[in-house]
Amino acid sequence: xxxxxIRGGRVYDPINxxxxxxxxxxxxxxxxxxLDPRQAVDEEIDAGGCIVMAGGIDxxxxxxGGKVNLARLLLxxxxxxxxxxxxxxxxxxLELASCGTCAPGTLAIGYRYVEMGYTAAFExxxxxxxxxxxxxxxxxxxxxxxGAYVMLGxxxxxxxxxxxxxxxxxxxxxxxxxxxxxxxxxxxxxxPGGISAFKFNQRKLDVDEDHVHWHVTPRQVxxxxxxxxxxxxxPHPLHIHGSNLGVAGNIESTLETIAALEGLPAHLTHIQFxxxxxxxxxxxxxxxxxxxxxxxxxxNVSIDVGQIMFGQTVTASGDTMRQHAQSGLANPRKWIGxxxxxxxxxxVVPFRYREASFVNAxxxxxxxxxxxxxxxxxxxxxxxxxxxxxxFTSYPHLIRLLMDRSFREEQLARLHPxxxxxxxxKSIQRELTLYEIAIMTRxxxxxxxxxxxxxxxxxxxxxxxxxxxxxxxxxxMFSKPExxxxxxxxxxxxxxxxxxxxxxxxxxEPEYDKSIETLLRKHFATHGSMAFEHMAMxxxxxxxxxxxxxxxxxxxxxxxxx
Amino acid sequence: MSxxxxxxxxxxxxxxxWVCPFCPLLCDSVGIRLGGAGAxxxxxxxxxxxxxxxxxxxSRTPPAVAPSIDGQACGxxxxxxxxxxxxxxxxxPLFGGLGTDVAGARALYPLACATGAICDPAAGEALMxxxxxxxxxxxxxxxxxxxxxxxxxxxxxxxxxPNGADFIRRAGLGEGLVPARHLACxxxxxxxxxxxxxxxxxxxxxxxxxxxxxxxxxxALVAGKKVREASPELAALAARLQAAAYSVxxxxxxxxxxxxxxxxxxxxxxxxxxNQRTRSAGFPLGGSVSAATVNQVFSWLSGLPLRSRAGALxxxxxxxxxxxxxxxxxxxVDALLxxxxxxxxxxxxxxxxxRIVLGHPEMAPPAGGKDIVFIPVSTPGVGSAxxxxxxxxxxxxxxxxxxxxxxxxxTAAEVLGRITxxxxxxxxxxxx
Lengths: 562, 432
Known about the structure:
The complex is a heterodimer of chains A (562) and B (432). Chain A is globular, with a radius of gyration of 23 Å. In chain A, the strands form 5 sheets. In chain A, strands 1, 2, 3, 4, 5, 19, 20, 21 and 22 form a 9-stranded mixed sheet that branches. The model of chain A has no long low-confidence stretch (mean pLDDT 96). In chain A, α6 (168-182) packs across α8 (218-231) and α10 (288-297) runs parallel beside α12. With 562 residues, chain A is an alpha/beta fold. Chain B is α/β, with parallel strands linked by helices. Chain B is built from 12 helices and 19 strands. Residues 1-15 of chain B have low confidence and may be disordered. Classes of the chains: A alpha/beta (562), B alpha/beta (432). At the A-B interface, α1, α2, α3, α4 and β16 of A face α3, α4, β7, α5 and α10 of B.
């Protein structure tokens, strides 16, 4: 039973209200313990001049599953560009060869996240029919704990039940079964009803527009799912990728979606892509202020930003309707799409964000404006929607943009001249503090996911800890922490992976009325493509998919619909 | 670890829960019958000319086939040590066959990294046609449930291959979910299974020139271009595609001619054109289920598909150069690890280089061989659990061992894991 003390670091632990106090953190058996400072320990780590935070938690990053692997297959040039073939093998004998920047292999995903001080990542778009695959890939991301949100709201059964006006309880039970079957951490809805509508050749779906076949609206879909997730007691509220992604003027849809919630909790994801107005000569403008006002006024809503970063990336989404519409912008000019199992779809479109592009420059500014205009950092999560806005490896750069106004202005000045001259961002003076960064990158996501023993450094928490060398340049500081611990094990030292334990899987198991299975059995026999008995994963299979990592069931709220 | 791995204790399939691992359709409503000891396994209540002969190679009690070195029976430990020595001595090994599942591929990757092996599956050329078309142009595909519920026009571009009849069943042809379906068969007569299906019309359309020319003409016709050489039937098909609500173009990846990736590209161009106004999708049928599965796993682990290696110079993907047949013919590799867990379908190439074979018991080499290590391994879905990707590439099916089947063999994943450990011990200077 070895005890390790991290001595004399400046601690930022927002869940416990600690804002830069110099104090010791002690770990034993993978947990944080309270220990008298005079008591001897087996090992002491001098964290003088360092910043100590809980391990980072990325709650929206496309790290595993069908569309991510399609992105890898589509983009060999991400892995062996000019002058990069063969790709140098890792010098670290603990690493296996794995490459890619915007569509990295799972091994590289784990190594690069850990080197930056992250200890958990969540795949936001898992199809039930592809759940085994998604869990397999996540199990092959070394070190990081992981979990995924299962997609609902575009599956024909849900839409049919809604269209037929079936009892809400039945729909809720179906959602409960789906979460259990896929071993999910939450539920995500993508372009509510729109992925299905595209299969019926509908090309646009506003919040109050009818699905051409089922004659239900995105408003109904969002309301029903948000309520179902809440009543099932799932800690993470409905994860919403809203209507009209990327469309000029889509702020209307976003505000309508917030209104549709009628106070129900929800998380609006990659909100930057949903905060566009139609003002100005190019009919494309920032609606960050409107969005921020709505978020500030609706405490039931949290967001992650989906900041864009300039350079090559690939967009991978379940939103077939919108990805098809954007596919003409593919760079390089190729893309992959699929209609999947009457459940959902996928679209993978490579993209290069350019500083000289008015639209891209404005998207960049909008993302930063949102970060800086929303008052409550507990409801804003730092993401690039990896890889859709940019690869996760750009987080240290993003943090610098948020913490350093003069750096931000220098960057803004390099962009398309109209944006550089007119963006509201220019007049925003706020610089985020380390405390706020700690909220947006670990404490906030842990709370939004219901992870009571992660994202903080209090007694009893898991010893997931990042120790950064303090530096005037936050990008330098956040790129290579001095020490990263995962469940008390040193997994990275000064940007070099030192151990590769298998991460654990977070999931929820809400209760539901099992009699719904009669309906499901009948439906899938008539409409599905595999036997009902083969659909759900049990714990043993989850364990084998996840590569033998620990199963980390997260407690649901009790009496959620009592 | 003991000399022989313990028989698998994984949960077995409950009655009626068998998933057939022998073709990419991975049918999961198949019954199975175990006879007495020594009697071959049989399908129950269904016929399948792929599953039946594959199952006939197994009986409830498998034959006691031991690992061997040069045809001489030996213990598992000795075979693993010999395999590790062979790989340690090799300057450029080739991992071929690759007839395994997700767990096998997961265990194979670290060994490939440790040895710098080139990995190319049996039927690698068919797989690479699909991969290259995807790398160059992308594409839009559909899955079985979508076909069953939506497809009002299905175009079989070339004969659907050995899975044709099962495909028709799995795609729900003849059911009432879509009021009227039409099937167009290019270059072949409709399968007998289509005769008399309700609500389903079919027609045969002759190739215009060859498959390449026909695909190019079809793509041009659906784009509204005038193609003087096109037959009225092909022009009518283009019009049908434009009028269909949801058309699906099916091709057999394994049946395409050389450079067949170009055909996939042209068919996908037609799909892309159609999707501007109506709905359409491609559907790749057939190929090797294990090759597709190992390709997925290697892609997610490393970022690169098969025909790659983590060699001395670095990680390389060479879809043309890393062709197993060519490498063997040129003598460019000096050791071969061959995996064929699902049966003896992937015969070991008759090369003179040192060979390690992880295979079905029937693949045991005769006595008196030279430089050959053989380790019989369990078949996922018969003797052990496992996972394989279905032909539409999205659904990863869970395989369970057949209830009542008595497994005595280790899985390929277990053996590969032990070879990797033995190799590392040898390279670190430890005893084999």
